[in-house]
Amino acid sequence: MSDLICASSLSQAPELITDCGGDADAIFARVGIDPSVVGAYDRFVPFTVLSTLLGLCADELGVPDFALRLAARQDPDILGPLAIAARNADTIGDGLRQVTNYAHVYSPAIATELREDAGENADRGRANAVGYAFTTLLHRLPYRPHVVELAMGVTLSTFHMFAGPDFRPTRIAFEHPPISARRVYLDYFHCPVEFNAPATLLTFPRELMHRRLLRADPLAYDVAVRYLTGHEREDSFADAVSGLIVRSLPAGASTLSTIAGLLMMHPRSVQRELAACGTTFDRLVDDARRDLATTLLANPNVALSAVARQIGYSEQSTLTRSCRRWFQMAPLRKRQALTGRLPRGS
Fold this sequence. Notes:
The chain is an alpha+beta fold. It folds into 2 domains: about 5-230, H-NOX domain, CATH 3.90.1520; about 235-340, Homeodomain-like (Arc Repressor Mutant, subunit A, Orthogonal Bundle), CATH 1.10.10.60. Helices cover about 50% and strands about 10% of the residues. It has helices at about 15-20, 25-30, 45-60, 65-75, 80-85, 90-105, 145-165, 180-190, 220-230, 235-250, 255-260, 265-275, 280-295, 305-310, 315-325, 330-340, and strands at about 5, 45, 110-115, 130-135, 170-175, 195, 200-205. A 5-stranded mixed sheet has the order 3-4-7-5-6. Helix 5 packs antiparallel against helix 6. The longest helix has 20 residues, at about 145-165. It is globular.
């Protein structure tokens, strides 16, 4: 399972660390996070590093509820396209289904599930309840309770986005024992909170599933869902690596060691993860170069020498050899084909 989460999950963390009396730069350096990625929707950090950061801050700053405090400062928009799809669905139930279907785009290390039978075997007061379940998929995860509490805090914010600021769950359940005073949880969630439970679960009234969302934008919904459906769980790691490769090509920095450093992983670990996705690093680099070359060749105002540089080649002759391999024609001939300017008789 890919040990990744979108870097937007770190939003507001430096500010909270500072407000709690800590040195954000020093703590980020200890866990190996580049502060420049904080809040970025298109960058990823190891899920285990986020979890470690939360636990260290809780322990060393004397703030057991650090994760909940961070969640309170974060907006559901940290979920990126997932939030766009969810808030523009027809009903709250449809929005929640988008979150559960595509949570892996935000982090392939988590899984969420709607349990519409959550109250069938429970107390009479829960008979009409639905459960939103959260699971971390990594077997070895430091400070797991802290990252789970961050996730459930963000989940509450997502429900507020759907149902308004007055929404209250009917129950919150955590698989772990409390790591803060029980009053902290009651004040945060405003509902009964259970610990050492069989599953981590936010329970809410079933009628909420059918409530229509106001100001839904069908176009925004369609665009977001099309984006999300192009990112299957088993491909999430390869997608993250591809994105880093594309950004690194113009600087000639699309090497395995460089990309592994950006992911804070060992190069061999990157290779193993990509093999599990059915691909290789070299193949992703080649695919990225081909796609970018196609885009640049379609613009007649970009010199062929510039095309070569933008895809990370130091010499134009290398571009020529690659184009013959990719397209069975030279770069200029490919440009003519893309722009409809083929000579007569071709």
